[in-house]
Amino acid sequence: MATATLVMIDRPTRGQIGGDGAPYRREDPLAPQLRVTDLAVTRGDGIFETAMVREGRILAEERHLRRLARSAAMLDLPEPDLEVYRDATRAAVAAFGAAAEGMAEGMVKYCLSRGDEELGTGPVGWAYAGPTPDFSAAREEGIAVVLLDRGLSTEVPETAPWLLAGVKTLAYAVNKAALREARRRGAQDVVFVSTDGLLLEGPTSTLIVRVGDALVTPRPQIGVLPGTTQEDVFAQAPAWGLRTEYRDVRESELLAADGAWLTSSTRLACPIRRVDGADLAVDVSLTSRMNALLTARTA
Ligand code: PLP
């Protein structure tokens, strides 16, 4: 098993002062790095991105960086220095690639914490590169999902932006609790539903539904994270003779769909084969085309 690599980012945001040396440094991933008073630890007060790494390259690199900047703005965090993040993540990946010779896929997860509450330090960041689990069964055989109430209306991005719907914060305890509830109900994953009855996204993935010759995904404006993997699928859809639509999707449409998927950077496209115990059509050929496209990307 290849060893993960860690790069700590001492000056992750623009205009941060302190030290003339490099804004980041390689560290031992098994050694402690954060204090117990760091706000990422005590409040989940920070943001992150997880990107797929293939043949030493970070896929959808610029879009992940832009999404980090968007998340920072929505949490009133200082603006992340994207050049520093680009260099630091590449350094982590290069070190991991050297350690993981012959490994086709991996991931890099990078974070920005608001900093240490007691010490009053500015924001700190890190980039952690490592192997990914084997997702081939979920990609090929599909996943059973349950629909779970997210308890938020699709209006909240407008009416209550402090609820951070659709923002990639470090506070994923709710998402993890939803996945445990799915397991209790005999499923592997979740599609969240808004209080006004619209399907949203998975706890770590985007929902795509095929309705005839259209691929449909919920609009980011209703409080879902804009997915980089879904965007790559949508960019290719016209070449497959499919239209793309960002619009509302309800449970009835999912149950009658010609195919449905949860997509994300490391798991790629996992077909949904069951919803709340009801079988769903699995589009085997489109699934393999999606995953062939997604696994062939080098950018
Ligand atoms: N929605 C949520 C809530 C997520 O956490 C993620 C990824 O982790 C996604 C969607 C999928 O985004 P991407 O395809 O960019 O990985």
TrEMBL record:
Q: Name one GO cellular component term.
A: cytosol
Give the record's family classification: Belongs to the class-IV pyridoxal-phosphate-dependent aminotransferase family.
**Keyword Metal-binding part of the UniProt annotation:** no
Q: Care to name a GO molecular-function term for this sequence?
A: lyase activity
What keywords are annotated for this sequence in UniProt?
Answer: Lyase
Organism classification? Bacteria, Bacillati, Actinomycetota, Actinomycetes, Micrococcales
Q: Which GO terms describe its biological process?
A: carboxylic acid biosynthetic process
Q: Which organism is it from?
A: Serinibacter salmoneus
Lyase: is it a keyword of this entry? yes
User: Known InterPro entries for this protein?
Assistant: Aminotrans_IV, Aminotransferase-like, BCAT-like_C, BCAT-like_N, Class-IV_PLP-Dep_Aminotrnsfr
Supply the name of the protein: 4-amino-4-deoxychorismate lyase
